[in-house]
Amino acid sequence: MGLLVKEKSEKAHLTRYDHQRFELRRKLCRFLLHQIAFRFLAKIDRIEGLENVPPKGPGIVMINHIAFVDPMVVLAYLPRNVVPLAKIEAFHYPVIGIFPKIWAAIPVMREGFDREAIKQALRVLEAGELLLMAPEGTRNPSLRDAREGVAYLGSKSGAPIIPVVVTGTEGFPSISPSRWRGAGALIQVGSPFRFLPKSKRLDRQMLKQMTDESMYVLARMLPEHRRGEYSNLEAATTEMIEFL
After folding, report:
1. What is the pTM of this model?
2. What is the total count of domains within the chain?
3. Do 162 and 212 touch, CB atoms closer than 8 A?
4. Which of 40, 60, 62 is nearest to 173 (CA)?
């Protein structure tokens, strides 16, 4: 019996997420983003609401996704290291594909339910770390019908959702002088909220409602022309969420 308990304990330890293992490399990536990428490839105007990022504990950073650089902007400027989910194709891009590998992002297959990505994401949250997700799953100039990953992970883990909107990144990365003369990126962090499931078993209808309510939170933070599928703010409900 003692040997069996020891084996189970060792197995649990192997599957536990070790954030410290990646801390140094992520700090290096953040340094390179600040000192190189955002000096020569993208312009940052300002960041608002950083006080809304919890200083410790788990959280899901939920972002809109207009341009290629949006996740990198958020990763660089939030006050804590964040673990992003990235489409598996991004790991195979020429040159820049090394970035998600070094950062140790979680690869996600966009088609279907990626169980392995979900398991890794839950381990990150169980370890008390921040996770980065773009609910739409791809870039869009305005919000589109979102997938249910944020709702599923948020309800399963109990972690707060931290809404973040990024605007002004269109056309970046760029070395064009005309693009740099215009406005740069604005990052806004909203008030965190938490999902309130009505029952222990989540069905598709509940996940859909949680997803819509969270997307309307993003929509309220965006200018009207960026709200897309969630433009009708009068249709927004808050039955499944509470603000913290």
Report:
1. 0.90
2. 1
3. no
4. 40
